[in-house]
Amino acid sequence: RRYLRLFKWIDFSQASTITWTSSPPSSRRVLATAKNMLLAIYFFMEMFCITNAMGITTSPFLTALQHHALQVWFLAISTSLVLTMHDYLSQNTSSAILASSLVLDCCDILIPGSAVGWIAVDSVTVGIASCISSIIAGQQIWMRVQKEAKEKEMRKREKSMRKVRFDKGTKVSEEEKEESSEKGGKEEASNGVVDGSVKALANAVGDGNGGVKKRSKKT
């Protein structure tokens, strides 16, 4: 888990910036931004302590840094609890999501709280809370992945439908062009026949007049 979240502080830094710039001024924006910023600071501090966690180094400075990082994590979870209660009072989110988030934060806060000595619980309680937290977090991740997959499938379906409509429109326009060209060819052919008939009639009339003139001269 430490490897997977080694650069997690970048995601929370970007999330805090997006939350602060995209949301309207409100108390919720302050709480959400503070939560993301505290989590970014926690993961940034913890990144330097991975060598101590792996047993490569035994630096007292990194041990103290890990202790302070856990304190920041405790503050981040506390802010998340306040944010969850704010959403519950404001009714911005469904009750089921708020309940799962509340249980998740209550379980997570025992880990840093017991590590820094701010919450007096034994290791068994912390282990049970960690298991419950992992189950709820896994369920939330699975629901988010399913939602993203459905949205992706809907976008793909809409794109294919737009493509089909475009192809049909192109096909119809080509058929209309072919029909118009065929009509134009028929009209030109009919006009040519008419013009030929008129010219032939004019020549015949001209020949007739010429014959009359010749007969009149002979007489």
The largest β sheet comes out as: none
- Structural class category: mainly alpha
Number of helices, where a helix is a run of at least 4 consecutive DSSP H or I residues:
7
Estimate the strand proportion: under 5%
The 3D shape can be described as elongated
Number of DSSP strand runs: 0
The value of Rg in angstroms is: 41 Å
Q: Summarize the amount of helix as a percent range.
A: over 70%
What kind of assembly state do the chains in view correspond to?
Answer: single chain
Mean pLDDT: 81
Pfam families: PEX11 (PF05648)
Biased composition (Basic and acidic residues): 164-189
Subcellular location: Peroxisome membrane
Keywords: Membrane, Peroxisome, Peroxisome biogenesis, Transmembrane, Transmembrane helix
Quick recap:
Residues 164-189 have a biased composition (Basic and acidic residues). With 219 residues, this protein is mostly helical. The protein has a domain at 8-121.
What does this structure look like?
By secondary structure, the chain is mainly α. The chain has a domain at 8-121. The chain is built from seven helices and no strands. The chain has helices at 8-22, 27-47, 50-54, 60-90, 95-108, 110-116, 123-218. Helix 2 (27-47) runs antiparallel to helix 4, helix 4 (60-90) runs antiparallel to helix 6 (110-116) and helix 5 packs across helix 7. The protein is elongated. 15% of the residues are buried. The model is unreliable at 208-219 (pLDDT under 50).
